[in-house]
TrEMBL record:
Pfam families for this protein: TRIM_CC (PF25600), zf-B_box (PF00643), zf-C3HC4_4 (PF15227)
PROSITE patterns named among the record's database cross-references: ZF_BBOX, ZF_RING_1, ZF_RING_2
Keyword flag Zinc-finger: yes
Coiled-coil features, chain-numbered ranges: 192-226, 250-284
Organism from which the protein derives: Salvelinus namaycush
Name the UniProt record assigns to this protein: E3 ubiquitin-protein ligase TRIM47-like
PANTHER family in the record: B-BOX DOMAIN CONTAINING, E3 UBIQUITIN_ISG15 LIGASE TRIM25-RELATED
Gene Ontology MF terms in the entry: zinc ion binding
Domain spans labelled RING-type: 10-53
Keywords carried by this UniProt record: Coiled coil, Metal-binding, Zinc, Zinc-finger
InterPro entries hit by this protein: E3_ubiq-ligase_TRIM/RNF (IPR051051), TRIM8/14/16/25/29/45/65_CC (IPR058030), Znf_B-box (IPR000315), Znf_RING (IPR001841), Znf_RING/FYVE/PHD (IPR013083), Znf_RING_CS (IPR017907)
Name of the gene: LOC120043883
Length: 352
């Protein structure tokens, strides 16, 4: 069976095992790496496996695993390299694995229970060991301390609605005792639900406004069409009345002109008679017979009724000023009525 790279690598330094040792749980590490790891837990007096977290009391005695050491040396001779790819190392802006020593790998997850971040290799115990089954893993983050209560050094996992603060469990039974407290998860769910409800309410209001706008547009269009119809009827009425006034004026003009033409005809007939009489008198004036002159002149006298014709005259003062004045007064009255009605219409239309 081929030996994999992981089988000869230390899960702490991620390099090929140097002076390999096996601890009681069966996991193997470099002698120096596991010693340094346990030296950090010296004051606690409890020593654990970096991978499976199994604890040991007292501190296990370490002995070199000669068989594994020989295997590592053998594999080294074949040229097998255990170094990880360069892109797996943590760079600027990356979250570093808290377990790696030396050059650290990029962390892929952070544990809210351990308050530590892990690379793929050091994360495996959280997936494999029942000890970490209840630990909550989140996306690798450098802001884990923000999730810890600065007073009790406990995970911030509760929310006080009374004081609107994120608190830990000890805060809940301490300063916030008796307050309206819920889990941070519940508060988040409630707030997200509230945001969704608010969005739905606003969307509903928007739909109502859109419906109102459509109804308003239909109503306005109907009012415009009806107003155009009424004003068109008014225009027709005024045009008809205008025609009637013109007909009255034309009729008055026709009557006056007819009267004048009749008088002119009579006067022309009278002038013709007078011119004939004048011609006869002119001929009579040349006679030397005085008796004949007088007898003829008497027969040429103006017949009765001729004087009455001379008194017939045309009324030269026929005028349409009264008509123009009446039409002007009608215009003014209509303008006053229209202005008043337009003001009433404007008052009835609600302004935004």
């Amino acid at each position: 069976m081929a030996t994999s790279m992981d089988s000869i690598s230390c899960s702490i330094c991620l390099d090929p095992l140097k002076d390999p040792v096996a601890i009681p749980c069966g996991h193997s590490y470099c002698m120096g790496c596991i010693k340094d790891y346990w030296d950090q837990d010296y004051q606690k007096g409890v020593y654990s496996c970096p991978q499976c977290r199994q604890t040991f009391i007292p501190r296990p005695v370490l002995n070199t695993n000669t068989l594994l050491a020989e295997l590592v040396e053998s594999l080294k001779k074949t040229g097998l390299q255990a170094a990880p790819l360069a892109h797996c190392y943590a760079g600027p802006g990356d979250v570093e694995c808290d377990v790696c020593t030396g050059r650290k790998l990029k962390a892929v997850k952070s544990c809210l229970e351990c308050l530590a971040s892990y690379c793929e290799t050091h994360l495996q115990p959280h997936y494999e060991s029942p000890t970490f089954k209840k630990h909550k893993l989140v996306k690798a983050s450098t802001r884990l301390q923000e999730k810890i209560c600065s007073r009790h050094d406990k995970l911030l996992e509760m929310y006080c609605r009374t004081d609107q603060q994120i608190i830990c469990y000890l805060c809940m039974i301490g300063d916030h005792k008796g307050h309206d407290t819920v889990s941070a998860e519940s508060e988040r769910a409630e707030r997200q639900k509230g945001e969704k409800q608010r969005i739905q309410e606003i969307e509903k209001e928007m739909q109502e406004v859109r419906r109102s706008v459509k109804s308003l547009k239909r109503s306005a269009q109907a009012a415009v069409e009806e107003s155009e119809k009424i004003f068109s009827e008014l225009i027709c009425t005024f045009e008809r009345r205008c025609s009637e006034v013109k007909e009255l004026i034309k009729a008055q003009e026709k009557a006056a002109v007819s009267q004048a033409e009749g008088l002119l005809k009579q006067l022309e007939q009278e002038i013709a008679k007078l011119r004939r009489r004048d011609a006869e008198l002119e001929q009579l004036s040349h006679t030397e017979d005085h008796i004949h002159f007088l007898q003829t002149l008497q027969s040429l006298c103006i017949p009765p009724g001729s004087e009455a014709l001379l008194s017939i005259t045309v009324n030269q003062h026929v005028s349409f000023e009264d008509v123009k004045k009446s039409v002007s007064e009608l215009k003014n009255q209509i303008e006053v009525i229209c202005s008043g009605e337009i003001a009433l219409i404007s008052a009835k239309i609600p302004c935004s």
